[in-house]
Amino acid sequence: MSTDILEVPAEFAANALVDTAKYQEMYKRSIEDPEGFWGEHGKRIDWIKPYTKVKDVSYDASDLHIRWYEDGTLNVAANCIDRHLADKADQAAIIWEGDEPNVSRTITYRELHEQVCRLANAMKDLGVKKGDRVTIYMPMIPEAAYAMLACARIGAIHSVVFGGFSPESLHGRIEDCDSTVLITSDAGMRGGRHIPLKKNADEALEHCPNCKTVIVVQHTGDDVTMVEGRDHWYHDVTAAASPDCPPEEIGAEDPLFILYTSGSTGKPKGVLHTSGGYLVYASMTHEYVFDYKPGEVYWCTADVGWVTGHSYILYGPLANGATTLMFEGVPNYPNTSRFWDVVDKHKVNTFYTAPTAIRALMREGEDPVKKTDRSSLRLLGSVGEPINPEAWLWYHRVVGDERCPVVDTWWQTETGGILISPLPGATSLKPGSATLPFFGIKPVVVDNEHNDLEGATEGNLCIEDSWPGQMRTVYGDHERFIQTYFTTFPGRYFSGDGCRRDADGYYWITGRVDDVINVSGHRMGTAEVESALVAHSKVAESAVVGYPHDLKGQGIYAYVTLNAGEEPSEELRKELVQWVRKEIGPIASPDLIQWAPGLPKTRSGKIMRRILRKIAANEHDQLGDTSTLADPAVVDDLVENRMNRG
Ligand code: WTA
Questions:
Q1: In order along the chain (646 residues), what is the average pLDDT of each group of 10 residues?
Q2: Cβ atoms of 416 and 441 closer than 8 Å
Q3: Cβ of 411 below 6 Å from ligand 1
Q4: Rounded to two decimals, what is the model's pTM?
Q5: Whose CA is nearest to atom 10 of ligand 1?
Q6: Which amino acids are annotated as binding site for ATP, given as ranges?
Q7: How many helices (H) and strands (E) does the chain have?
Q8: Which of 281, 310, 385 for a ligand 1 pocket mutation test, highest count of atoms within 8 Å of Cβ?
Q9: Contact (CB, 8 A) for 537 and 565
Q10: Strand partners of residue 183
Q11: For position 1, what pLDDT does the model report?
Q12: 548 CA to centre of ligand 1 in angstroms
């Protein structure tokens, strides 16, 4: 753990949106008078009918509700496009950089308006109405952004499913929200490889009878099967549609999108975000955390399939009239200088990525970075998982030439936007710490007995009150929403993360304290991987835990008990890895499978994951209390086999 402190560079502070004093003053006000604070800052976006009520929230499990700006109306797409047309029509809204380095496109706000209107009209012509759920399964191409904004324009609810998910995962997500429309493309490209999205979609749709309309973008030109009456080419339907589509008037609390995310139990849940509060929060955090100045080029390397893509590629930046860069490719194609070549090519000012990418690039040494210019860079950001101080310092020194502050931003799909992060002109930095809360956010550190802990301490990270970008419910399952987030520590929002607070009040996120693991910045429920494994005919039982992994942060460690009569083999191990990839997607592939003749259980049959986590981490000398085990010999066997692998 590092205790270095990096002061805000003087020049940066002088030109920043907020300095230390202003942060403290605004933060104090936001906590003491949330209604007044958010009432004022809600005006940063355009409302059709202004709100008169700011906040109506109860965290009481018997009447749990979260409402912001509830009597206001607006249109999110109009905020992201139309309101910039007067003075930014010819400014780049999106710079798209393709997988191949010689392929890029610039889309101005005027063009964005036309594209989104055409698609919105085409969707209306195909019968899509306000409130309908539209699933988007797309590569990182501008049409993915058009699709999301077209939904927002007509009040349809989008559910973006990451292009790396399997047909089976896509099917589950389409079915859960009863989506009637799917927007996809022939294929996606990543590092020169084609990802057969339409083929995957066809497989998924075999099980989704209610999804009757498919719009297909022609991107790679790969051969695809078009189903008569169901499938429509994007270019045909948009060419036939009018380029003008008046934005629908949407209630602040009407849903904007559903995004599925993994939890500690069961299947992924549909996190529901609404329109007004979400946009206020996404745009405000984007402006303040990235100290965004008009005319700057901002690049977030996330995929639109994750919340980071929603809030910080699309909605936040576009609501602020920014130029946002969208990248289809990967950091190591055609070579490991790619990120920095793109920075130089498009004169990127702010660069926002995940620690896993930084660690992977760090391995390649400094040369691929140092041979590029990067003088346009002003600010660096990190998101998705804890960043180890070593990676932080490398990012700061090698990528940012010690000139660019690094903002380590902690947040979640559920939070809609950043909750804990430095503001680069206001906050001294400590490598590895997400530092201080954003306006309106009051973190509380709580022990397992529900006591609030004061001062320098460590415990479970909760948030005391609501903020406008907070999720409103789990789609179709409000009870699960209440159970997951508000019952462990009654009266608080529980993040599922642990944290440490140091003597300066800085927060250090220590990772999940529940059965969610974070693999390369992607959330994965151990229960999901387990249920995929036990669905295989040779598997009797399985327990999945995370373990420390140099590159991925956490790797997936699966203990597998085979059915009687089945023999472990290298071949079967490979088969099981393939099986999980097929069931969920490549991001869920187990890194290590250990054959387990038995799993450590309590006498009541509960698997003792705490012990399995220790064995996986090679910390077999710290197994803790094993006295409640039904059969202690099981543990000895597992330890011995883990040790044998080194
Ligand atoms: C983790 C991604 C440490 C955390 C925006 C959280 C982080 C989960 C950070 C949410 C960070 C995200 N430092 N941990 N800066 N950012 N996390 O929903 O465990 O995909 O609960 O949202 O990622 O992942 P999600």
A1: 80 94 98 98 98 98 97 99 98 98 97 98 98 98 98 98 97 98 98 98 98 98 98 98 98 98 91 98 98 98 98 98 98 97 98 96 97 98 96 98 97 98 98 98 97 98 98 98 97 97 97 94 94 96 95 96 95 97 95 94 88 93 86 90 67
A2: no
A3: yes
A4: 0.96
A5: 412
A6: 384-386, 408-413, 497, 512, 523
A7: 22, 31
A8: 385
A9: no
A10: 136, 215
A11: 46
A12: 16
299 phi/psi in degrees, rounded to 5: -130, 120
Ligand 1 contacts CB of residue 614 (under 6 A): no
263 vs 471: CA distance, rounded Å: 14
Quick one: pLDDT at residue 264? 84
Question: For residue 300, what is the enclosing H or E element?
Answer: strand 297-300
Q: What is the 3-state secondary structure (H, E, C) of 556-580?
A: EEEEEEECCCCCCCHHHHHHHHHHH
**Is the Cβ–Cβ distance between 502 and 508 less than 8 Å?**
yes
Q: Which two tokens stand for residue 174?
A: 């389409």
In the chain, the N- to C-terminal Cα span, in Å, equals 26
CB of 64 shorter than 6 A to ligand 1: no
Quick one: CA dihedral 215, 218, 219, 225, positive or negative?
positive
Cβ 352 under 6 angstroms from ligand 1 = no
CA-CA distance, 178 to 209, in Å (whole number)?
10
Token couple for 409? 């931003």
* SS3 (DSSP) at 181: strand
Contact 38, 440 (CB under 8 A): yes
Q: Which atom of ligand 1 is nearest to the CA of 496?
A: 21
- Please name the residue that has the structure tokens 């940012």: 400
403, with CB counted inside 10 A (0-12, 13-18, 19+), is middle
Q: Are 366 and 336 in contact (CB under 8 A)?
A: no
d(CA 332, CA 38): 42
Residue 410 Cα to ligand 1 middle (Å): 6
Separation of CA 595 and ligand 1 centre (Å):
31
- ipTM of the complex, rounded to two decimals: 1.00
**What is residue 607's DSSP assignment?**
B
Question: What Rg value do the Cα atoms of the chain yield, rounded?
Answer: 24
* Cα 423 to Cα 12, 18, 406, 637, distances in angstroms: 11, 8, 10, 50
Per-residue DSSP letter, 588? G
| 47: Cβ contacts below 8 Å, ≥ 6 apart | 69, 72, 73, 74, 276
Q: What's the gap in Å between 324 CA and the centre of ligand 1?
A: 22
134 Cβ neighbours under 8 A, 6+ residues apart:
123, 128, 147, 151, 156, 157, 158, 159, 179, 180, 181, 182, 183
- Indicate the residue type of 571: E
Residue type, 371: K
pLDDT of residue 284: 98
CB 253 within 8 A of CB 275: yes
- One-letter-per-residue 3-state SS of 382-437: EECCCCCHHHHHHHHHHHCCCCCCEEEEECCHHHCCCCECCCCCCCCECCCCCECE
Q: Cα separation of 335 and 341, whole Å?
A: 10
